[in-house]
Write a sequence for this structure.
């Protein structure tokens, strides 16, 4: 089993529901959802473009998937998770916007991200002790030859290239696309997510996802409100 610490809104949040319908899977229940035809894209086309994002569920990575380090157990991780959430305080992002990053579409912050970046770093520092060192195969899958020097250092030290100074908050919606296909996706995504992109986004909870077995879809295991007793959610 692998764990990951992500941000995702609560299960009844409008952003969660719209994203689940787009990706074709609810990360809280694990249920699949058949997206409607959108802007000339039929459900099969949408399923193709969302395949990689669908497995991970709608989220922003704060601590990338990890196996437990030797000597660490799930109960210790859950206690640390609850304590961290209770000690943290919620804050808001002014809004999200659609952007294309390295070829894939994602929702990214539109506004000041200083507190967000600080919070992401706090998560990594708090939970790194639970992370087993990456295997050679796991490092290879990150394509180390394509990483910048700082990203490569982060990969080896922290298990993920995009932490601290290289952190980029993003909530992935598609795989890579280019040319006319990217233009079609951008139009459809802009229309589909328009109802929720003008509202502030509360960073009010932290979510522990699990991958029950290699290659299985990630699913919510716990979600805890920041500054309050965590709510227990189990798949």
């Amino acid at each position: 089993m692998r764990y990951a610490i992500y941000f995702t809104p609560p299960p009844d949040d409008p952003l969660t529901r719209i994203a689940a319908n787009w990706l074709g899977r609810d990360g809280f229940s694990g249920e699949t959802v058949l997206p409607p035809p959108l802007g000339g894209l039929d459900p099969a086309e949408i399923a193709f473009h969302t395949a990689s994002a669908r497995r991970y569920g709608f989220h922003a990575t704060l601590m990338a998937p990890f196996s437990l380090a030797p000597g660490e157990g799930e109960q210790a991780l859950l206690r640390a998770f609850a304590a961290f959430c209770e000690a943290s305080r919620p804050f808001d992002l002014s809004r999200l916007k659609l952007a294309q990053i390295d070829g894939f579409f994602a929702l990214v912050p539109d506004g000041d991200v200083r507190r967000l970046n600080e919070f992401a770093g706090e998560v990594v520092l708090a939970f790194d002790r639970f992370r087993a060192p990456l295997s050679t195969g796991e490092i290879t899958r990150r394509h180390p030859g394509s990483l910048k020097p700082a990203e490569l250092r982060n990969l080896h030290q922290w298990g993920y290239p995009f932490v601290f100074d290289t952190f980029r908050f993003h909530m992935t919606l598609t795989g890579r696309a280019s040319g006319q296909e990217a233009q079609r996706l951008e139009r459809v995504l802009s229309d589909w997510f328009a109802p929720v992109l003008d509202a502030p986004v509360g960073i009010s909870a932290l979510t522990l996802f699990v991958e029950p077995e290699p290659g299985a879809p990630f699913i919510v295991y716990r979600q805890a409100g920041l500054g309050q007793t965590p709510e227990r959610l189990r798949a």
Summary: The beta strands are 2-7, 60-66, 91-93, 96-101, 104-109, 171-176, 201-203, 205-211, 219-225. Helices lie at 14-23, 43-49, 51-56, 74-87, 114-127, 136-141, 149-158, 179-193.
